[in-house]
Amino acid sequence: MIPAVIGIFILFMALYVLPSIWQTRHLPPGPFPLPLVGNLLSIDLKRPHADFANMADKYGKLFRIHMGRRRMIVINSYEIAKEALVTKATDFAGRPRHFFGDVFGRNRTDFAFQSLNNRWKIQHKLAVTALRLSENKANIADHTEKLCSRLNSFDGKPFYLHDIMINSVANCLSSLIFGKEHKLNDREVEMLVYAVQVFRESLSAGNMIDTFPMLKYIPMDIFKNTKRAGEIRDEIFERKFEEHILTFQKDNIRDLIDALWKGFHEISHDGLLTKEQLVSSASDFFFPGTETPYTVITWAIFYVIKHPNVQARLHRQLDDVLGNTDRLPEISDKPNLPFLNAFITEVLRIVSETPLAVPHSTTRDTSLAGFKIPRDMTVLINLWAIHHDPDIWGDPFSFRPERFLDRQGQPHVEGVMSFSAGKRSCPGEFFGKKLVFLYLARLLSRFRFECPEGTTLPKEEESVNGLVIECKPFQVRVIPRKRS
Length: 484
What we know:
There is one protein chain. By secondary structure, this protein is α+β, with helices and mostly antiparallel strands. The termini are far apart. The radius of gyration is 24 Å and the shape is globular. Helices cover about 50% and strands about 5% of the residues. It has a 4-stranded mixed beta sheet. Strands 3-9-8 form a 3-stranded antiparallel beta sheet. A two-stranded antiparallel sheet has the order 5-6.
């Protein structure tokens, strides 16, 4: 009996342990993987970012992990993230295959899930140029006013904010992308919001399917829902794109789709781009463009309710800038509202709404923090760990907007990378920040937010965790205010 056990042990060492040690000898340290499951049993798949942050205490701020048989490295440090994303941007600018990412990215014809190649470079440049050309078509101020009118209609009565907010932001993004002439109707906006919510859930669940590909052959509702969401999204975007082509005038750019179509005919792309890539680019702006601002604005309202002293300070600064007039905040007021800017940055930091960002992959053999990193290695940037690193922030779980004000009271953002950095940074970062700023400036200039009597805010740890950390729905009272 004993010789048989010894023999099995030696065989296990020869077939699994020794090859595993050999294959990872140059990689960063990390937990030893179990057969088949890797390190999955050590990770809470609902809050992997928190478990990765805890692992960093043991293995260092750059470590390896095995999700099933898939190896990846996890970056938990701002400095190491800058080395990967900025200093060695090309080396770390790839994208790994993602099962649901292929649906979301329309078979990887978009620029978010497509890996680094010449087509991506041209498509990304075209998309950024088109956004700059058309961003004023969104008329953010008009959508904030419609939202304020909607909030006023509750006449101080309690209501749930989430659905109202996401529909407002979705309408704002639809005006940017489709313009007034091809504006979406309410039903189409509702359908796209549904698709946003399904994609959010499926992209998170897709991590398990990428780990165990055999799961995709098991009938599950998430497959059916994701396929349906993709069909809804594609039908609307493709139909609207065709409508634009029929009425396009190069000297009258009405929206983002017009700007994409104009750029497509003006740049040299050697046949690398097709209309399919343009439709996918427009889709990329709508989905993260709706999800991220909606999430940040909702969390911001959560924190002004939780911290009344912060809300009062925001009100005072807005009143000082706007004066005793009926004037509403404009984007031009941004330099004069440093505390509001610091408040938004602190919300971005403490929430880290996309905690693990979109995974990267290496495009060639490279190195990071002194370790050799092979080509096609999946790389996770743990933004949540970076934004909660006590070595940087001291008290990372305290909500303190003033941490982002210098001695002169001016804002600074060092250490926060909510929109990533380098080649794969979010192309809609400037527009997204503009949208969040103007929504919050106008909401806070008009209203005071509080919990209805007899209710409390949900605890932060009760948030809905996945690809995005979404605030658990809560009731709110909106009280019109007069400037002091």
